[in-house]
Amino acid sequence: MKNRFLNIRILALAVSSILLTVSCTKDNADAPTETKEENSRWITVTGARMGTNAGDGNGGTLIYAISSDDAKNPETVVDVFNYGFVAPSNRTARLQSSEDGNTMFNISYAGDTGGNYTKYTVNGGQEFTPTGSEVSIAPYVGTAPRWIKLFDGDQTGAAVYVSTEHEVDDNGTPDIVTDDTYIRTNAKVGVVTLDLVDSKILNFKELDVALSAEEEANGYYFSRVDMPVLNAAGNKLYIGGRLSKVNPATVESDSDYEILGSKTIVLDYPTLFNPKVITSTVGYGNTNGYRSINAFLSEDGNVYQANQGDPNGSHILRIGANNEYDNSYVFSLNNALGVEEAYIVAWRYAGNGKAVVAYEHAGSATGPAGKTQGFFALIDLNAKTATKLDAIPSSEDLYLYQYQGFAVNGTEVYLTVAPIGQDGNIYIVDTETGDVTKGAQLINVEGSHFIGTF
In the record, which residues are listed under signal peptide (predicted)? Predict the structure, then answer.
């Protein structure tokens, strides 16, 4: 009975995906056919359809694959919103791709299918063929999981969540609090690892993750965790986190408080035991990122991590081979770009110390859609420099906060650049030379936006 039930679930998901694709795309007979030369790579373009408001991305996620050669050709036209494959998800799908671009991984976000893991072979255009089995990680990390593909040769994914509970002594409750009743807020972090090859759960652990006694007494706790990454030795998993705070006198949320040094949770891997919290004295604020990978292992054996919400602007932080923050490494995006309140919304390491950063800063415009304007820069982690990519056109409605994917092909990074509800182009950044090439045309629809390439 168990196997029959699983097969029915897989069939139901496949049928619903087909129906959703038919309802949101033009007839398959009208869809362009895409091919790829042997020395080329699939570049999967991703669009987030408007739900209720322009730029909210809540109307579903569509994907469409073209070759890297076609992506570089400004004569190529990509119409993902009319011809794309609908990635199953109630809201914006949480997508990852294999390193060669031939496989897409998806975990549905929210709704009845939330937490369902599916894998697809990329065949070009709107042709994404399901492969392997569907696996639900919802029983472990809920229907709106935060997950990422670990950089271990496309072998493993990791999803995380945190639940919190305020602890008070026997003389009080969270509703009736005196000065001495609040003890701490316990953060219980759940981690599940997923075999991406054979589509199965590998491990699951729930752990209480504590801050220092002083920090907890003052009401601080982990309120969100995300973006796991493996260290060079492959024996530690780093998990980024965001801190929140309550007023110990009332156990009510505190919104005006001192921002502490950026923190990361360190676990043994693959056992997921022995949680430890490390703290930066260089950067302050959060390390959990948002929709895009926030920490990368470099060839030099260090992990480089962006932070957000730093009062001094986002930094790139470094975690050394000793699994501690290297506080001798100081890379301020404010200083590198000459801006104020720089905020890294997404970034991608491309090798040899080079990376592309999507960012906002103080004075960024707010367009008609009510979203903050974004920019791109090329950074050098070794030289600690950043150069704004002026060849990429600016627009007050170039919204990058939900940006997810940066396809990397050798030294090249492929970007989708289009304002909300407006057409745009793919741009290719050569991270070694700094050259920027204008590529394929992107056709948009009202209120929607592009969220990257895979």
Answer: 1-21
